[in-house]
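To: structure desk
From: M.T.
Subject: fold request, one chain
Message: Could you run this one when you get a chance? Sequence is below, nothing fancy, just the single chain.
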Amino acid sequence: METLIIIGVLFLLTWLFLYFRYFRKEKGEIAHVDSNGPGSDDAAIYSVASAWGDDNNTGSLTSPWKTIQHAVSHLQPGDKLLIRAGIYKEYISLNKSGTSENPITVEVFHSEEVVLDGEGVGWKYGFNFEYGASFVTLSGLKVKNFEGFGVALWGENQFVQLRDLEAQGCGTGLHIVSAVNLLIEGCNFHNNSGPGLVVSPGPLKQARIAHTQSSYNESAESPDGFILDSGEDIVLEKCTAEYNAGSGLICLATNITISAGIIRDNGYYGIKCRGEGYKVVNCIFDSNGMAGIFLQGGGPYDLSNNLTIYCGLKGDYGLVAASGADPAPARVSLINNIFAYNYGGVHFGSSALLEREEHNIYWSREDAEMSTDSRRYSRDEINEQICCKETGQGRHSFCRDPRFVNPSCRDFRLSKNSPAIDRGAKEGAPDIDINGSIRPQGRGFDIGPYEAAEGSLVPPAARITHTPRYSSDGSNSLKFNVIWEGLIEEGEVAGFHVQYKDGAGGSWQDWLLETTAREGVYWGVSGHTFYFRVRAKDDLGNWGNWSGECYTVVPTDDQSPLIKYEGDWDLTNSGESYLNTINHSASPGAAASFRFTGTEVAWISTLGPDRGQGLVYIDDVLQDTVDLYFERYQYRRPVFFTSLDGKPHTIRIVVADTKNLHSSGFQVDVDGIAVKL
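Reply: Done. Structure tokens follow.
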């Protein structure tokens, strides 16, 4: 019990300290708090609470005001207003400004839910930044049910920050008459009867709109998601415009950067632009009714690493540039983009200038992936470089299914072995992808908004599946068969590259530089060892690694002067024997010797019902007695084999005076000596 009392006293003392230090003030006075900015000694923290506040209070956290309008009328540079949870049935006019060192802050207290509700208020504008109100931050507020604008900036507003706002059920979510150095971040404008965000008449200059969504805005007037009627130096970063009855974004400004945006399911265009200096990177334009991208006169329009997919549902293209006569040509650059599954391909009107077109993938319409007013280019014409020869553009562009992870579920990441992996241009590509991953991850830059993780491109593997250990195993000549195969997880094996080398220490040389064959006949040289390796490429030209090496030993023929015969030996022509000859003897003690250097040696001979036995010596040491009897004849058989140390040795084969009991003779054949080099 005593412990609880002590804890209670300590808690009370702590609360009293905080109260007197930060919040207590006499009636009509302001409680001063420290601020990070210089010259902020007079800054104050106010609060407002609709449920239990009173506009006759002091405005402190413990004595809040009731209405936001009353609170903002007291704000001075550096002040902060904290809005407590509740529904505020009022409209706000803020005509105060902060300074660059001491901005005014109006924010929701500790992420509580604060709703500014215009139903029954009798005024159609919600939160109003009056003309010239500047250096103000507004954050966390939900605005709804205002017939006009949920939030409005009425002109010449500078250094205003709008964070985490939500506007719904209004005529327009956010309307900006004109502003400079504006930040809009983390906002959501949805289910309004007009556009989500509008700049009109403008201009809006030096603005950043980030992580902001405009969606489900619809009415008979078919409102758009974002409208920028004029302005310059504006960045839209990671913004979403979806399910709007009109277009996702209408932009008539200058020097615009649109990055990592998602523009989908809008009734009309994904984006519709006119002006100078547009850069669109890492964006996804998905399932828009008309063209995903509509570029009117102006430019340059630099589009890199975007995806336009399932667009033109009402009979339009994936991309349209300058569809009609326009006094200002649309100058367009397309780098590393994917246009897939759209109703039509990409179309360039008579006043469009395609300044650069490289490393793009087209997969929408087989007969017209790219078109102008007078010409259509099919998939085959693009892949066969006909389009490139006629336009001078697109040498590295091609038509292939881009292969996404799960496009039906809108997972447009590149699947393993997608043709977009590692095939993009470095020049003009952004340093990061739509998710912020560094580019490149693999051997090259990927095409489209997603950069696949390293290892996502798995080129085909290859292997030698058959080479005879000795060329004489399957042939009586110097020729022998080599067989190989390719293995791939996705896609097709389109070709092989086969190399050989003469001896283990030889240099690799091309045998079949590029072939679709899966076997070949190699003509060897007597007394040599040939090594082979192979690699495969897929249907997009990605080469895999070299296989392990396999070898074939071409034996030294029995007629070679390097084989020394002692005793009674006869040479016989035989169509079944290696190189059609064979030396044989049935005289015990007759011998054949061969001096060599290698890591393996084998004796090539004949088995048969009249064959005897041979004694095999290596460096005069008996290794084995080889029985050559077999019930039927077998030719060019390796009857003896041993591994060695790669140093000089001598093999000596001696006709024995013994034989198998079932044999009818003592004949011993020397058809060849095989040495692995």
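Reply (cont.): The domain at 461-553 is CATH 2.60.40.10 (Immunoglobulin-like). Let me know if you need anything else for the meeting.
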